[in-house]
């Protein structure tokens, strides 16, 4: 069950540390979009650029599928045929298929669930056609989150220096850094689990169980009236 998966991830100290690192909640976090050390072995479809041509779903049906609600392609499997994946990437007419790291995918999927979308037919007819850069939005959200965490850390340090306060249990909730050191393979595996959880959470949100999207696409008709 989905909720059990989320609880398992967030209640596991090591998995929670990986999640916090990916999403910028940790002081030591590195922006995944600036980290070239992680392999780009995951696939992401920018659905705001996708025109629903079904090319990728025809070329690599084990990786891509077309959403019923919006008529756009989505990656439904991260472990499909790599040769067919490469062919789909190279033959996409609008270059909307990206190979990303697991950490990047987690952030992108989290961002996608926040943005309102329209059916591809409506988009091509001019409705909701405002340009949306989901990569920029995901990077910006990470940077704002990280800035807030760093400011809070500075405030705690200043307070502790001024009062000579000893670190509390809550300051060291996850233990010492070396207590949770893991191999590179384990870190990658946990990042993949975080990405998978983000994809499932997005699907959960899309069905209307979660709150509605917070980012509304501009109405092309209203914007055109404003230009007149």
Automatic annotation (TrEMBL):
Q: Phosphoprotein among the record's keywords?
A: no
Q: Where are the compositionally biased (Polar residues) regions?
A: 219-228
Tell me the InterPro entries matching this sequence: 3Fe4S_ferredoxin, 4Fe4S_Fe-S-bd
| One GO MF term | iron-sulfur cluster binding
Positions of the 4Fe-4S ferredoxin-type domain: 41-69
UniProt lists compositionally biased (Basic and acidic residues) regions at: 202-213
The name this protein carries in UniProt is: 4Fe-4S ferredoxin-type domain-containing protein
Stretch list, region Disordered: 202-228
Q: Which UniProt keywords apply?
A: Iron, Iron-sulfur, Metal-binding
Q: Does the keyword Repeat apply?
A: no
The highest taxon in the source lineage is: Eukaryota
């Amino acid at each position: 069950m989905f909720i059990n998966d989320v609880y398992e991830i967030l209640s596991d100290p090591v998995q929670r540390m990986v999640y916090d690192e990916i999403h910028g909640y940790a002081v030591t976090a590195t922006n995944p979009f600036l980290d070239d050390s992680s392999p780009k072995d995951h696939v992401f479809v920018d659905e705001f650029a996708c025109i629903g041509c079904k090319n990728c779903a025809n070329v690599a049906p084990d990786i891509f599928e077309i959403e019923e609600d919006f008529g756009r392609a989505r990656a439904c499997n991260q472990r499909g045929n790599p040769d067919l994946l490469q062919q789909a990437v190279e033959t996409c007419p609008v270059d909307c298929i990206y190979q990303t790291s697991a950490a990047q995918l987690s952030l992108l999927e989290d961002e996608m669930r926040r943005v309102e979308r329209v059916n591809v037919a409506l988009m091509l007819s001019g409705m909701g056609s405002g340009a949306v850069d989901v990569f920029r939005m995901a990077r910006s959200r990470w940077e704002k989150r990280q800035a807030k965490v760093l400011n809070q850390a500075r405030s705690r340090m200043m307070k502790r220096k001024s009062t000579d306060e000893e670190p509390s249990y809550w300051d060291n909730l996850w233990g010492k850094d070396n207590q949770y050191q893991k191999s590179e393979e384990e870190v990658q595996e946990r990042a993949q689990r975080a990405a998978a959880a983000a994809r499932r959470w997005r699907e959960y949100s899309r069905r209307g169980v979660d709150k509605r999207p917070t980012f509304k696409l501009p109405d092309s008709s209203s914007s055109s009236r404003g230009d007149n």
